[in-house]
Design a protein that fits this description.
alpha/beta; globular; single chain; 350 residues; 11 helices
Length: 350
Amino acid sequence: MEKDIRSLDYSEIQEEMERLGEKEFRGRQIYQWLHEKMKDTPREMTNLPEKLRNTLCTQYACSDLEIVDVLESKADGTRKYLFRLGDGNVIESVLMKYHHGNSVCISSQAGCRMGCRFCASTLGGLTRNLLPGEMLDQVYKISKHTGERVSNLVLMGTGEPLDNYENVVKFIRMLSDEHGLHISQRNITVSTCGIVPGIYRLAEEGLQITLALSLHASTQEKRRELMPIANKYALPEVMEACRVYFQKTGRRMTFEYSLVGGVNDSGEDAERLAKLLEDRNCHVNLIPVNPISERDFVPPNRQAAADFKRKLEKYGINVTIRREMGRDIGGACGQLRKSYLDRTGGKGED
């Protein structure tokens, strides 16, 4: 199998050039073309000798995503991108525009096997992991398409990042590398549904990212109803792993809590959640659930969400209600990809 040249980090590119008998500066040039100038193929690397460009094209693959569809929200300018991978699989990414800069939400897998009940991403199961170059190219393609710099990155698209651990960590290091886009690790958020060994492992990486736990329930019983991963890792185990993560990294954790009307949005739920999080340096992000046709989950009304927030604040919890972005273009993660696969018979190609 050919190596994906966009997935090679700076030192690996240098090693490959040494193996090919090329001078050291060629590695710097190639890395700059791929990760600073964000070129699609080695053919575009105009200051390389033609022979070297031919070698790169024949000996290496190069992650190069194709934009299949772009939906733009009339309400807030959010854009959803559907990308086709080199093997025909499709993934989606989202560009969200805030006053503090452009934030991109990317996918880490094609499909997902976690089975969270309110999520469209997992309905078709997992197809495969994405390479670092395929994750990077989502950022690059969006940046080039808009002509604007991406300043914040969240791994909350299709897939469970800690289920693709090595590729995700490599992606983070490359995205924040001074030789590439050099996005601050403090502006990168990784979301997990709670793979406990992955949280402990991530705590030892020396990264300065924000870790967000998809919590969604204040008891083990209710969490198990919503998230199959809770059958493997009980809530006390997950919360202990989060405590150790903060202790090791000093990075405040975010707890994502999808509010589902009549399921986890009662006053008692809020009180239990406050008790669960007491004495933790954390932030709670309340997310009114996006309805999907395959499930009967609905968001709470605005007043119920506000009451839930107020109850948490009464207990001293730092909390916000996520601003709803892209509702008019199918805001829930995985919806664009799923509708496309349904239309094409699951083949990922028109």
